Amino acid sequence: MNTENYISKYCQIENNTVFVNGEKLFELKDVGFSEFIKNAYKEFEIEYPKFFKMDNLSKLAFVTSEIILKDVCEKDQENDIAIVFANQSSSLDTDVKYQNSIQDKENYFPSPAVFVYTLPNICVGEISIKHQLKSENAFFVFENFNTKFITNYANQLIKSRKAESVLCGWVEFYQEKYKSFVYLVSKDGLLFHNEKNINTLYNK
Amino acid sequence: MSKNCYIIQTNCVTPLGFDVNSNFEAMLNGDSGIQCHKNSPLLGSSFYAATIDSTQLDVAFSKVECNAEFSRLEKMLILSLQPIISKQKVTPKSVFILSTTKGNITALENKEYPIEGTYLSVLAKKIALYFGFTTEPIVVSNACVSGVLAVAVANRMIQAGVYEEAFLVAGDEVSEFVLSGFNSFQAMSENPCKPYDKDRNGVTLGEATAAVYISSDESKIGKGSIKILGDGSVNDANHISGPSRTGEGLYRSISSALKEAYINPHQIDYLSAHGTATLYNDEMEAIAFSRLGLQNVPINSYKGFFGHTLGASGLLETVFAIECANRNQLIASKGYNENGVSQNINIIHKNAKKEITYFLKTASGFGGCNTAVVFEKIK
Amino acid sequence: MESLKVELKAKIIEVLNLEDISVEDINDNDPLFGEGLGLDSIDALELIVLLDKNYGIKLTDPKDGKAIFQSVETMAAFIAANRKK
């Protein structure tokens, strides 16, 4: 039995630029993140009104994942794709926004629509809902992208037959400082799924 | 050949006591850590919550550490893990796993405080450094399933051969942040929560920490050791804040865990469920359990004793489920009087003796996440 | 009443982040939930905050929301009768 897994597709978003399989496919300089990500959403012809209700971390994770999944997920059938994401700041960007809504007792209006995004795994839920991925999922927090952990965790999910393929990623967002790197690990693909290749792609 | 993982030691810090034994005795006695908080600065109106007395915490903490440079949550985490570390040796093959949803979120209230202080990775590093871990700490932050997912993560990473043993600690605090949030969701119960009861009307929040030591070294197995047989953590893919009406993600999580464990539903002797006491969560669980044929298995929720302790709950409740198995004791589900879910499930209404070999722990949370782990008591 | 309805539509669009929908697109009697604007349970909770923040109306039982949030028409009527600011 072939125990080797491959990286079949990858997407990166940082500095207002979208790279797909290493190729720059979209760029919009000199605008803030909200403007940029909305334009990226349109550029890649994503149609999903719920996108506009998401917080920034979810928007980033969603668009990066959507670019990969839109051609991979088969409509009207089960897609056994696990999602394993991690970042450094958890949901801190939205945590700060929520804290500001309760800080001033004279102007105290906690918003449920903001509060729900004060958990980092909500972005994983958003992606799962879009593609009906009733599959394995987890969210981790590390100081830096922990290639060793994520690689082993993804391999173990496939080896133990808990998932056919795994969408892995680093999705970091805090106050306009952001970086996403999402890749699909499966039984066939472009590159061997190992720490060295992932580090090379991540640091590109 | 994959390795087997065993839970060798457990501990916890809750409003009912600072070790497993005192907590268990309190539960047998029917005590609850939930109290009414009037005129609290944390919320405009009075509310019920299970909180730890800060003075008692400081007294207990001063016995293990004289350095006071720790936050309240950090003290709770250290107190939980310390008795375990004192009996085990941390090696380069040991990993430290922290489960939390909000960590030191209370630090956000002070705008002068550096923002890095609220990073979960900084909190994990601080605790890991304190106990001398050399490997990079792992933080599991997956809403309300975090605590039980941490057990699955340890099991998986040890099986993958990355580590030989794992020290898990889970914790969350009652804060203005989470109280106001659950309140804005209109999800807070006006009275102490009543999981699965017909009069249930919401969550009561709580705070606690719990710790377990997991090892693949069979020479460490002793009296009270528990084998981890299987796990699953599957998303509902339904709604970010509401559970699936059919319990699909929970159903699949349990199925996945049972399949890996080679166990049939009828072999399960006891089920420690999530039971937050919201209308939809408890109903969803009941449907998932019935679909699996688990309706006759004795089930309880510990939320009536400790409230919902968020990222701590899954691990805290695993610790109590283990204690139930080791004592062959079922604990009545606090707050439950009359069935309030559509399925005829077997909620434990009275403390009772029962031989427990195989047991199941489940949890579900925001983002549509669910986790299940199957355990076996070593005889 | 007409100006309240227009104001309300603008506020709903703003707080619920309804993209590509303008005040003119929402009819007074359009259902807000289900088929209409397709709002969900979190939106309903957010509308409760909207009532509190802008009109000083506190809804403590979310079940009351069902009748009030049927349409802009029913919301405006409720606000006009109960507003504190």
From TrEMBL, chain A:
| Organism from which the protein derives | Flavobacterium aciduliphilum
Lineage top rank: taxon: Bacteria
Q: State the name under which the record lists this protein.
A: 3-oxoacyl-ACP synthase
TrEMBL record, chain B:
Identify the species of origin: Flavobacterium aciduliphilum
| Record bears the keyword Transferase | yes
Q: Which PROSITE patterns has this protein been placed in? A: KS3_2 (PS52004)
The record's Gene Ontology biological-process terms are: fatty acid biosynthetic process
Entry keywords, A to Z: Transferase
Q: Name one GO molecular function term.
A: 3-oxoacyl-[acyl-carrier-protein] synthase activity
Gene3D superfamilies, A to Z: 3.40.47.10
Question: Residue ranges of the Ketosynthase family 3 (KS3) domain?
Answer: 2-377
Name of the protein in question? 3-oxoacyl-[acyl-carrier-protein] synthase-1
Lineage top rank: taxon? Bacteria
Record bears the keyword Ubl conjugation: no
What family does the database annotate?
Belongs to the thiolase-like superfamily. Beta-ketoacyl-ACP synthases family.
Q: Which InterPro entries match?
A: Beta-ketoacyl_synthase, Ketoacyl_synth_C, Ketoacyl_synth_N, PKS_Beta-ketoAc_synthase_dom, Thiolase-like
The coiled-coil segments of this chain are none
Stored PANTHER family: 3-OXOACYL-[ACYL-CARRIER-PROTEIN] SYNTHASE, MITOCHONDRIAL (PTHR11712:SF336), POLYKETIDE SYNTHASE-RELATED (PTHR11712)
UniProtKB/TrEMBL annotation, chain C:
Might you report a single GO cellular component term?
Answer: plasma membrane
- PROSITE patterns annotated for this entry? CADHERIN_1, CARRIER
Q: Membrane among the record's keywords?
A: yes
Q: Which SUPFAM superfamilies match?
A: ACP-like
Cite the entry's keywords alphabetically: Membrane
Where is this protein chiefly located?
A: membrane
Which Gene3D superfamilies did the record assign?
Answer: ACP-like
| Gene Ontology process terms (BP) | cell adhesion
Q: Which residues form the Carrier domain?
A: 1-83
Q: Which InterPro entries match?
A: ACP-like_sf (IPR036736), Cadherin_CS (IPR020894), PP-bd_ACP (IPR009081)
Localization = Membrane
| UniProt KW Membrane keyword | yes
Q: Which Pfam families match?
A: PP-binding
Q: Which residues form a coiled coil?
A: none
What's the name of the protein?
Acyl carrier protein
Task: Identify the species of origin.
Answer: Flavobacterium aciduliphilum
